[in-house]
Amino acid sequence: MNINQMLGINDSYQAPAQIMKILYDRKRREEVFMKFLEAFNFDVSYDWFYEYFQDEHADRIRKKQDFTPKGVADLIVALAGSEGPTYDCASGTGGITIRKWQADRMKTSLYEYKPSNYLYMCEEISDRAIPFLLFNTLIRGMNAIVIHCDVLSRNTYGVFFVQNDKDNPMQFSSLNVMPYSKGVADFLRLKFVEERYKPLIESKVFPKHLMEAKEDVFGQKRTIM
């Protein structure tokens, strides 16, 4: 079963909108996640969408999109180090973030690894890449802030908080659309220019580790890739 079949579409141009539709329906989302895990032999160490997105959706003319090969991503991760939260600007579909997440979780045993010890902050301008990026963070049980924005102007279309609610490495994450509020804009140092995404709150508690990470994300203590 190929990616289009698992997403329930006939043509790849339908994928971004279809993925967003799936992501907003938790039951259906997690059913699709299981199909993908089985199709890729439960190997979550790399971005399954790398070739698919680059061949079908990359905007090489206007946005100069060429995505990072796994070997180069590993080199970036090794050079970047591991101090504090991880900031990945121009994240694409999340290939580098996934390799960083893989390196982080390999540092400890399954019994000691806690998703709450790591926070990934991803920023991406492409409408077409954002659904794939969200899919990749959710299925891996990450804690992440995904921002649909121009990283230079800070013009922003939506902010997503991806949370592993039970801090369980075997669990999928929950999806939350952050309010289009001054508080969120000030917290993340951005400016909303359009309310592109419908409200969605799946997590009932704002996590302590996110509050503690604020200074790290915007101060000196962070890993930038």
UniProtKB/TrEMBL annotation:
SUPFAM superfamilies named among the record's database cross-references: S-adenosyl-L-methionine-dependent methyltransferases
Single annotated GO MF: methyltransferase activity
Keywords: Methyltransferase, Transferase
InterPro entries membership: SAM-dependent_MTases_sf
Biological process annotations from GO: methylation
Protein name in the entry: Methylase
Organism lineage: Bacteria, Bacillati, Bacillota, Bacilli, Bacillales
